[in-house]
């Protein structure tokens, strides 16, 4: 297979196109596109001034991309012609560390996307990626004093930090599947975070990722290493304006949770409806470690994402909460994976989907309890809300239990919009769109309690906007 990925055309015809909303708000200093070759990959590595080990990793990933087949289980999406995409974009804006130094056009993006200056003030740290490069970096002094390392992924690689080489694409190797290999070859931008032993930071740290133009690929990489006994709450925000052409997102998150550490990772994805979103997210939890995922998948035309945890240490715990809203002719293929490899491990998966106006949701989950993972337990909840006759929801749970002392429980519900609830709310003065957003938020209430307060407010606003007459703006 070459660099053209041919996928289901029927879904593309159903999804259709979207109107142009706005043009890119900045000039491009550098862009790389064309046939995906070794020369292209080496040029990206050269521009980024990377050490030789990273250049070799990119080239090995490229080889795997051409060797690995397209996964047959993927839902149909628009054909992606990589040669039409820009692989790497360096925006012609300076990298700054103060809000007031951001170019005015970038500040306007923040304001439109609900990320005002006040939000940056309550965070312990913030890294913003525009296209392929980090453009805004805030690291509060308390992080430096405690030895926390927070910087762009590119800077961490350029500094040739030994810890980066030790963990980079070791949690999620490029050999896993074709899109992981593509990411390994083309990754750019992202966040590196190291939490030292015993350090606990209650305030959230955020990485924000913005696609600024059409026909662009974004391949940011986030790597979090939590040392023994540490605690971190990381928020990932994703957004893009609406353009005529599609954009392609193929990001990756790797988390390594050492003994007795805790990592909370929250994603609010509000890409515009012409972004094709593939996300690769995986954590490894050592003894006594805890990993909590929350995935809020609101925007995008096509989304494929399965936050996953390998419970490698005795007594480790992981929970994954995924909220998937398909409004309009869009498709969400989401779920979670929990791999139990050690005794006394615990996992919980909660997946809630909402399908409306012809939207389609697919739940695809995996729980595997290996032989020797004695007394381990897993619980899965999969709930679907279908709000009209044009929409659909499908579930494909998969459980593998090779340990007789382990247990898995699974419950699933599928419901339709309650006309009596809708009538009651509308009789009390709410418009139909307001009533539907209230019903959806009520349906999500037991999941929202697990979110940081700041993100609950953001998610509420995004859901309300989706059901407003204006619709989503990315």
Number of beta-strand segments: 26
**C-alpha geometry:** globular
Through-space gap between termini: 33 Å
| Domain tally | 2
> How would a crystallographer describe the biggest sheet?
10 strands, mixed
How much of the sequence is in beta strands?
35-45%
Structural class: alpha/beta
Radius of gyration from the alpha-carbon trace, in angstroms: 21 Å
Helix content: 10-25%
Mean pLDDT: 81
Low-confidence stretches: 1-26, 470-474
Q: How many distinct helices?
A: 13
- Biggest sheet strand order reads 6-5-9-12-14-16-19-22-24-26
Describe the structure.
The protein is an alpha/beta fold. The chain folds into 2 domains: 4-305, no CATH class; 418-474. It is 24% helix and 38% strand. A 10-stranded mixed beta sheet has the order 6-5-9-12-14-16-19-22-24-26. Strands 15-17-20-23-21-18 form a 6-stranded parallel beta barrel. A two-stranded antiparallel ribbon has the order 1-3. A hairpin with a 2-residue loop joins β5 and β6 (133-139). α2 packs antiparallel against α3, α3 (52-67) runs antiparallel to α9 and α11 runs antiparallel to α13. The chain is globular and about 65 Å long. The two termini are 33 Å apart. Mean pLDDT is 81; it is low at 1-26 and 470-474.
